[in-house]
Amino acid sequence: MISKAIARYIRISPRKTRQVISLIRGKNPYRGLVILANTKKRSAGFVAKVLKSAIANLGHRPEINQEDLYISKVIVDIGPSLKRFRPRAMGRATPILKKTSHITVELDRRAPKVKPAPPKPKAKAKPKAKAKPKAEAKPDKKKKPKKD
84-105: b or e for each residue (b if 16 or more CB lie within 10 Å)? Predict the structure, then answer.
């Protein structure tokens, strides 16, 4: 993990937010911002804000190539629920849970692509000795009929 950003107590359901974060997981952070900008979900704005914060937390590090970055971890956890009541018939009330979310974004550097080493040439095999000719099969002896 190179950079991390957390937004807590965001007033949106975690289930709705998880639909959006699955779009950007494993992608380049700048490409993720473009995807979020074109996503028509309310939670896309919250996730984009946290992603921008994670990018800003990198600072100006010359040793980090921006092309090697990727979103290594995006998590939405459940926050505390706000409990409200709605009036119902005959003097009753039903509870309403207004859920909140904690959004976490982590950025990391991709491992450099390593080309596999070329295979080593095989040692030349010694020429095989010629196979010995098989001995000719003996002709079957005819069975003599048994006499009683």
Answer: eeeeeeeeeeeeeeebbbbbbb
Beta strands, E only, the chain: 3-10, 69-78, 82-87, 93-98, 101-109
Which pTM value belongs to this model?
0.72
Domains and CATH numbers, the chain: 3-109 (3.90.470.10)
Can you read off the two tokens belonging to residue 102? Answer: 């904690």
Name the stretches of the chain with pLDDT < 70: 125, 129, 131-145, 147-148
Q: Could you tell me which of 115, 107, 86 has the C-alpha nearest to residue 98?
A: 86
Q: Could you tell me the two tokens for 144?
A: 């003599």
Handedness of CA 12, 14, 18, 19 (dihedral sign): negative
**Close Cβ partners of 65 (under 8 Å, ≥ 6 residues apart):** 109
Separation CA 22–CA 9 (nearest Å)? 20
Mean pLDDT of the chain: 88
Q: Would residue 82 be called left, alpha or beta, if left means φ above 0 and alpha means ψ between -120 and 50 degrees?
A: beta
